[in-house]
Amino acid sequence: MSLLDVILGYDCNLACDYCTISPEMRPRALPTPQVVRALREGRAAGFDAVSFTGGEPTLRGDLEGLVRAARSLGFTDIKVQTNGLLLAHPQNLDRLIAAGLSRLHISIHTHEAEAYERLVRREGTFELMRRAVELAVTRPLAFVADVIIKDDTWQRLPDALTWLADRGVREVHLWYVSLSDGNRDNVGSLPRMAEVMPTLHAALRLGAARGLEVRSLHVPRCQLGPLAAHAWDPGSERVRVVSPDATFDLKDSRLAGRVYVAGCEGCTFRAVCPGVRPDYVAKFGEGEFRAVF
After folding, report:
1. Under DSSP, is residue 251 helix (H, G, I), strand (E, B) or coil?
2. Domain 3-255 falls in which CATH fold?
3. Which helix (H) or strand (E) segment is 173 a member of?
4. Can you state the angle between helices 90-99 and 63-72, rounded to 10 degrees?
5. Would the pTM of this model clear 0.85, i.e. be above it?
6. Is 136 within 8 Å of 143 (Cβ atoms)?
7. Which pLDDT tens digit goes with each residue over 154-199?
8. Are strands 213-217 and 103-109 parallel, antiparallel or unpaired?
């Protein structure tokens, strides 16, 4: 399956403390006709899946119509990636499903109310996120919960996966925080992998025991060791990103790894590993990365 990843705009109803979207980016958005044109061009180029993301795509009044347009153009898999707040209301989610939505990602960030609202910097939002998650698992669509790994969340990863499993979630993606754009100077948000790995390994094992499919993004396989099968590089697939600023292949994104250090030489995973992100090497150096033979 090849994916057209459409960033509709950068506006959002949250202000997450690790967000890579800068204040200057927030006003920028793709006009509806440009999105429809990108959908048509994507289908003509053979893309069969589409993702609508942001910013926060549910703020767009045209989202339902764009989902319907994607379905009418023949996209077989239609995804929305969201913080879920507006989807806590059943009618909002059900309208998108009726229009053709087949896949939903909700960023839960972290599973504890106080920590969540401190991270997203908006009070009264945790319950909306929780309700959206609990509603999504009852609907006829593929559902994924996204969890961020950063300085103040990684310690509770096993508890977060337990919280999700208790609510019927069956797939979780773990995103390692990046220092780019709006989060460039928030250096303290990026934790050292050597410190995180024991807890991440425990979380992956717990997830397997609870029947969760857990994918780890942005952590090289050498760090995951015997759990390397959980590593996932979306850029290894055919993904075209359409944003208000540019159109590019995901493998060329600044969030991709692209850095191969001396320790990568001869590694068994070299052919499938995207490498280390440059922001990580800039902060911690390359000493943690050793080839697996």
Report:
1. helix
2. TIM Barrel (3.20.20)
3. strand 171-176
4. 20
5. yes
6. yes
7. 999 999 999 999 999 999 999 999 999 999 999 999 999 999 999 9
8. unpaired
